Amino acid sequence: MSIAPPNVELKPGTIQFLESGPKKLLLGGEWLDSADGAVFESINPANGKGLVQVAAASSADVDRAVQAARGAFENASWNRMSGADRGNLLWKIADLIERYTDELSELETLDNGKPLRVSSRVDVPQAAKHFRYYAGWASKIEGSTIPVSFPNQLVYTVREPMGVVGLIIPWNFPLLMAAWKLAPALACGNTVILKPAEQTPLTAIRLGEILIEAGVPAGVVNILTGYGVPTGAAITAHPGIDKVAFTGSTEVGRKIMSAAAGSNLKRVSLELGGKSPNVVFADADMSRAIRGATWAVFSNTGQECVAGTRLFVERPVYDQVLEGLAADSQKIRIGNGFSGAHLGPVVSEEQLERILGYIASGKSGGAEVVTGGERLGGELADGYFLPPTVFAHHDDSLQVVQEEIFGPVVAVSAFDDWDELVARANATQYGLAAGVWTRDISRAHRFAAAVKAGTVWVNQYGLIDAAAPFGGYKESGFGREMGKDAIELYTQVKTVWVNLG
Prior knowledge:
Elements: E1 2-4, H1 12-19, E2 25-27, E3 30-32, E4 39-44, E5 49-55, H2 59-74, H3 76-79, H4 83-99, H5 101-112, H6 116-137, E6 153-161, E7 164-168, H7 174-187, E8 191-195, H8 202-214, E9 221-223, H9 228-237, E10 243-247, H10 250-263, E11 267-271, E12 277-280, H11 286-298, E13 310-314, H12 318-331, E14 333-335, H13 349-364, E15 368-371, E16 389-392, H14 399-402, E17 409-415, H15 418-425, E18 430-431, E19 433-437, H16 441-450, E20 455-458, E21 473-474, E22 477-478, H17 483-489, E23 491-499
Parallel strand pairs: 1-14, 7-8, 7-10, 8-9, 10-11, 12-13, 12-19, 13-17, 16-17, 19-20
Antiparallel strand pairs: 2-3, 4-5, 6-23, 11-22, 15-16, 18-21
């Protein structure tokens, strides 16, 4: 491990955004203070210092947002807008995201901590791609005609928007996750209340400014910054919201299900936690597998729901993989996201303490720390920095093996045979993703069929595209984002019977 020195020189647009005063709520096309005037401070995780004050929405603000969104949904300027026109609007949003790449990337790095090269090369371009992908879908949402057993009947279906949709996004990919949900929701003709995570509100606010510049009608997108309680809780429980789409922890997902059932039985889609198995067989290309396993878990400082945090290695190559993983981990440069580092800090002091608690539990449970495991000090002491941490273990019941840590921690163990591997790979409450490394393509397909996961990668890890459905099995949630499947998330089917007799 090496420490990258900070070197921060912000673009003028970023400075203007940060210095233009406290950030407000987007309600009905206007930037307004919260109803009670409450604010909170967005913190730079690289140094623990405040960036800017942000409005903290209350339940009264959720009421205001619902009123604005409902009015916009029923307004002819949005409700009767053709799919082609909505598509043009989404395309324009994508163009503006690309135009403001520098600002959005810098804000993402300041607010989340991730390296600038990741923000600028992955998060922002992929956000633009998502809007462009669903710009194409907006004019292609169609129903079908259905032959029925009754004579002289024409039966057809149409897909209609859900109505007012609440979108609650996490802090690990703030802008990209907003695009994942916003683009299909708008393509389908819904109006939206977007709630970013309180840890990372800034790119959502800047995106709101972009939406206004693009010409999105007032009230179609409303942005409420604030905490999970009361803001997020009020969104999930509000009877005026027709659907909630949430990405976050399984624990919060359960609360959302309960709240949705208790209000108006609103539709819910959930992309929740993961504890993904990543498997290396003895016949794999070892250099590729070791490098792939390293970034499968440590990418984005381990703050990915799909992270390959349970690494299963066939026993003949176990020592080789463990040593290679530890060596690669120690080469990773850690530092301020503007410094050229490979990894930045974790997102908050709270998250850092949570991760350290898991590391302590792993140690006390008998797992061996091969590398990492301690908070970084020195010039990084003010930030929330933790090096890649590798555990070697022989007990699948440990917390570090069973529970989602959401940090740069991997648990490595050996396996001896196929039946053992499949049973252990599936022995978790989660089922979001999995990976397998082998030269035997038949074995790869067998593993993909046997593992209970929504996405399986073969001889690679972590690829996600706007066209490919993404979501989980078991307690990793339900519903599929991206691809055609996301159109189904944000529409409902109406069946029409016409008597031709």
